[in-house]
Structure formats: C-alpha cells, structure tokens
Hints:
The protein has 105 residues and is mainly alpha-helical. The protein has a domain at 23-90: DNA polymerase, domain 1, CATH 1.10.150. Helix content is 50%, strand content 4%. It has a two-stranded parallel ribbon with strand order 1-2. The longest helix has 19 residues, at 2-20.
Amino acid sequence: MIKRTLVALALCLAIALPALAATPVNVNKADAQTIATSLDGIGMSKAEAIVSYRDAHGPFKSVDDLGKVKGIGSKTLARNRDAIRLDGNVAAAAAPKPAHRTRKH
Length: 105
C-alpha cells in the first residue's frame, strides 16, 4: 500500500514539475505581478524589489544585474536564467543570428 502511494506521488510530481518551470518574462518592462507569476522562486515582494530597483537605476543590462536587487541571489538567477529577458522579443532571444552576406562585385 505504501509503495503504491509513493509511486502515485512520484508520478504526480513528474507531471507537475514542468508547470513549475519559469516562464519567459522581460524584467525591463513587466510589472511586479507578471514577474512574480513568471519566475520560479520570485514572490511578490522580490518582484516589487526588482521593479523598484529598475525604476531607480534604469533597465537591467544583463541577467547578472538582477543580483544587485536585495533578495535575489545566484541560485535564483541560475534557476531563472533562461526565462529572464532584457528585450521585448522573446523569440529573438532563442533565434540564431543571421549570417552576414558578402557582396559580389
């Protein structure tokens, strides 16, 4: 009986874990509520701190700049690095850059 319960619990966790993954969000434009619901381990108070820091110091230039916000540590950044966007285009962050063409004379 205990073994079946543990197997069922493990299955439930395996199904639920992808839902806990961070959702891409532009931290230079999003409001605190959006940041809090999009990033893993970021609650409303940390999201408000991100917005306050951004308002006081300007837009973040790198993901690592978020480490300057009180309460945002390296583990939180590592967990959310792939979801943190600094520009407006989520798709552009994942798309490869086009190759430069050379002109023939």
